[in-house]
Amino acid sequence: MQILDAEKESKIWPLFRLGFRVFFMGGALFSCLAMFLWLLSLSGMAVLPGVGNPIWWHAHEMLFGFALAIVAGFVLTAMQNWTGIAGVRGWPLALVAGLWLLPRLLMPLRGELNPLVITLDLLWLPLVAGMLARPVLQVKQWRNLFFVPLFVLFTLLNALSYYAAFSGNWLLSERVFVTTVLALTGLIAVMGGRVIPFFTANATGTDKPVPHPWLEKLSLGTLWLGVLGWLLLPRTDGFNSALALILMVSALANLVRLARWNNKLARNIPLLWVLHLGYLFVPLGLLALAAALLNWGISISLASHWLTTGAIGIVILGMIARVSLGHSGRTLEIRRSVVIAFVLLILAALLRSLLPLLAPGMTNMAYHTSAMAWMLAFGLFNWVYWPILTRPRIDGRPG
């Protein structure tokens, strides 16, 4: 791996020495702010003066503002390990982080239809794609080229979401947002299959389960087919039934896949059980979306939160807690406050996804308590990890 000399590294502010630092911290802080503004908006307060559709803003910003910032930080960092080429750092990283941040700050004031907001927001994801493509092409590591078209897909979905907002087409907005949720879930399924069994085997001194090729193809293939189907298929009873069947097959395949990852060995290790539990929300969320398509007593919005607050939120918190320690030269040991954050986020997912189903009269309370639990969980992460992410590695190495 190419290593920067100490003098050159010391001139870079630690926050911009690798992608995980600025995007993990920025994404986590932004999620707290965005959830706080959403909570105030739900309470009837005019805290988004420029925004025409607060529901659109909430969905867009939690996906394209929060979740994709964390994904960008993860892959920009991991690409260094995968390719052996030094990761993006310094002013190029600061530039792409700034392009991510500016639309987040401007949108509440200028609105989702502001040309400057839209232009800035459509720039940062293609830049990340280019930064990912360079080392992959340089070493011809085609397996990891997967992330480049994925970020192009997210850029197209982002552009389509703005088009839906401009045209006032909420059905199109919902279709785009759920497609994005499924694509993020597909990414979790791909990366989860790589790292969760590996982390579990390393931490417990056991053998990593050998993947079944047919199960991997079935679980991932049906999930990505569901992504395309949700975006492109007409909304008729026949097509809805076919798409629901695809999601059910994917849910069952991913549940079997998860069951093979030695879950029992993770019970006493928080950095493991949070990932296993987070991944459990993947098949649960896919089943919920299938039920919504079949009109089995659950709305698409409610079903999607099994994946957003559940799978995406929990896996993200578990991964950033672990990756931040490893890439800052620290041992994989977490404070009790971080374990509390894990529990709070699982509680947030259950409150947001399950309570409205069991007690529809408590739906409003579910929204508020879930949002508060989310803010507390990521607030605890920010409090514990601020010194870790904003200071140099403790072992003196670059990164």
Automatic annotation (TrEMBL):
Pfam families, from UniProt? NnrS
Q: Write out the transmembrane intervals.
A: 20-42, 62-79, 91-107, 113-133, 145-165, 177-202, 214-233, 239-259, 271-294, 306-325, 337-359, 371-389
Keywords on this record?
Membrane, Transmembrane, Transmembrane helix
Check the record and name the InterPro entries matching this protein.
NnrS (IPR010266)
The name this protein goes by in its record: Heme-Cu protein NnrS
Task: Tell me what organism the protein belongs to.
Answer: Oceanisphaera arctica
| Taxon lineage | Bacteria, Pseudomonadati, Pseudomonadota, Gammaproteobacteria, Aeromonadales
